[in-house]
């Protein structure tokens, strides 16, 4: 059902894009809009992952600089039947994570240093399994295309407002008023569709991530901790580049408490409830280490580390 809903929303977004092109330039405008969308999607397909990683200040790590994290991701990727993705760390105190890449063979997962300091190992495993679920479902590509088309619709709307609609529409069925209304409302509608697709994919990734890690309640506990921290700790990279907010497991800018039309993420309470129901269906009990209170000693029970997960010589020194 989630995949069907995503397909319907994407089809609607594409139709909206072509309708705006028609309102601006008739059939030729619609064709130009289609060509522009194809060009933007081609560029985004090959370059979006590098752009996102650069905007968030992520640095690639390996077994030498972050052995526990890389080893955990390798174990989860094997369970999910995925190639080993590249692993990145973001020097941010706010706990959060995201995945990017055009396909499983060119994927990357990124976690903040705050995530590793504040969550238990089981909770981190749940979070990274969620991100690998996005990779397995090719959500990173879906959301890249969605964001690109939505951005193009906004661009076309602004272009139409500046240069005016297609003259033939003044006497046609659309009319001048209809053209102006479409140019104003289409970018808003595109944003709503983009956010609806994002919310749909988060629920699907929660479920698959819980199945990969085998600990849905640890993921639920992680979501609660990350959501609480997002209200109190600023994510500087996301604040500087708010267009990346939909990629993170929890909205790094603000935590909406309803599945409203303007939210890029489902309400955390709803996601936790869904994971609790899944845990009951799987017959899984809460892990002993998954509590609402973050362990001050770090995820491995060691002394407070200078670098991610006990490494004093990691990428942050």
Widest beta sheet: strand line-up: 1-2-4-3
Radius of gyration: 21 Å
SSE order, one letter for each helix or strand: HEHEEEHHHHHHH
Query: What form results from the Cα inertia axes?
Result: globular
**Major sheet description:** 4 strands, mixed
Return the average pLDDT rounded to an integer: 77
State the low-pLDDT regions, or none. Answer: 169-174, 255-259, 289-317
From the N-terminal CA to the C-terminal CA, the straight-line distance is 46 Å
Tell me the structural class.
mainly alpha
Approximately what portion of the residues adopt beta-strand conformation? 5-15%
Question: What number of domains?
Answer: 1
The beta-strand count equals 4
The tally of helices reads 9
Helix content: 55-70%
Write the layout of secondary structure elements.
Layout: H1 2-55, E1 59-61, H2 67-80, E2 86-90, E3 97-100, E4 108-112, H3 113-118, H4 121-136, H5 139-163, H6 175-213, H7 216-232, H8 236-240, H9 268-282
Parallel strand pairs: 2-4
Antiparallel strand pairs: 1-2, 3-4
Helix pairs in contact: 1-5, 1-6, 2-4, 4-6, 4-7, 5-6, 6-7, 6-9, 7-9
Commentary on this structure:
- The protein has 317 residues and is mostly helical.
- It contains nine helices and four strands.
- The protein has a four-stranded mixed β-sheet with strand order 1-2-4-3, with helices on both faces.
- A hairpin with a 7-residue loop joins strand 3 and strand 4.
């Amino acid at each position: 059902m989630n995949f069907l809903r995503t397909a319907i929303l994407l089809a609607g977004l594409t139709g909206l894009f072509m309708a705006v092109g028609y309102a601006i330039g008739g059939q030729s405008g619609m064709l130009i809009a289609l060509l522009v969308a194809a060009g933007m999607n081609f560029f985004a397909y090959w370059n979006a992952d590098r752009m996102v990683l650069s905007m968030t200040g992520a640095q690639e790590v390996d077994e030498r600089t972050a052995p526990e994290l890389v080893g955990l991701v390798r174990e989860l990727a094997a369970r999910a039947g995925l190639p080993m993705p590249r692993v990145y760390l973001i020097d941010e105190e706010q706990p959060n994570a995201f995945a990017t890449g055009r396909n499983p063979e060119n994927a990357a997962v990124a976690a903040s240093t705050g995530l590793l300091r504040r969550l238990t190992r089981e909770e981190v495993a749940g979070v990274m399994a969620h991100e690998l679920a996005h990779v397995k479902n090719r959500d990173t590509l879906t959301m890249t295309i969605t964001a690109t088309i939505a951005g193009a619709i906004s661009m076309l709307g602004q272009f139409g407002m500046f240069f005016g609609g297609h003259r033939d529409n003044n006497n046609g069925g659309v009319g001048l008023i209809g053209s102006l209304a479409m140019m104003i409302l289409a970018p808003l509608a595109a944003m709503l569709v983009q956010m609806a697709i994002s919310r749909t994919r988060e629920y699907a990734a929660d479920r698959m991530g819980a199945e990969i890690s085998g600990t849905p309640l640890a993921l639920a506990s992680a979501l609660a901790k990350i959501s609480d921290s997002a209200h109190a700790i600023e994510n500087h990279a996301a604040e500087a580049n708010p267009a990346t907010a939909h990629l993170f497991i929890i909205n790094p800018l603000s935590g909406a408490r309803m599945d409203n039309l303007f939210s890029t993420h489902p309400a955390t309470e709803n996601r936790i409830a869904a994971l609790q129901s899944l845990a009951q269906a799987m017959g899984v009990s809460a892990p002993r280490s998954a509590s609402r209170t973050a362990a001050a000693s770090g995820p491995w029970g060691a002394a407070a580390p200078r670098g991610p997960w006990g490494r004093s010589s990691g990428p942050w020194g």
